[in-house]
Design goal:
Layout (H helix, E strand, L loop, with lengths): L2 E3 L4 H8 L2 E4 L3 E7 L11 E7 L7 H21 L7 E7 L2 H4 L2 H21 L1
Parallel strand pairs: 1-4, 4-5
Antiparallel strand pairs: 2-3, 3-5
Length: about 120
């Protein structure tokens, strides 16, 4: 099983937020190649961070959105191997994740990582 490793430093977030992004109904995902700091652990860890804005709702709502997105990404990484471990991802969740069923969120995550794989293979 692949473990998640979150970004900790503000400058790491700012660096990723200047790179490529994809907007969906449920989330916005930013991605970029790993920097040198993460190269030593690239086989063990998926560098991914889940971020929620305060205007989504109270803490219970934001945490539920994070849990749904984390579980969807974990399920995709186990089954399909669509997620490239050489990339760093930052996912900003939206309020629609809380309202809709998990199967819809899972399908959207799956489609988005397929798009990312196509984008990264072309460049």
């Amino acid at each position: 099983m692949i473990k998640f490793k979150s970004l900790n430093r503000s400058k790491d977030f700012l660096k990723i937020l200047k790179k490529k992004r994809i907007n969906t109904k449920y989330f916005t995902i930013y991605f970029d190649k790993n920097s040198r700091n993460f190269k030593k652990d690239f086989n063990k860890y998926l560098n991914i961070s889940f971020v929620m804005k305060k205007n989504i709702g109270n803490a219970v709502t934001r945490n539920k959105v994070k849990r749904k997105l984390k579980y969807a990404v974990q399920k995709i990484s186990k089954e399909k191997r669509l997620i490239d471990l050489n990339y760093t991802y930052v996912i900003f969740g939206k309020n629609n994740v809380y309202k809709d069923k998990f199967i819809n969120v899972l399908g959207e995550v799956n489609e988005t990582f397929k798009k990312i794989k196509l984008i990264t293979n072309c460049s």
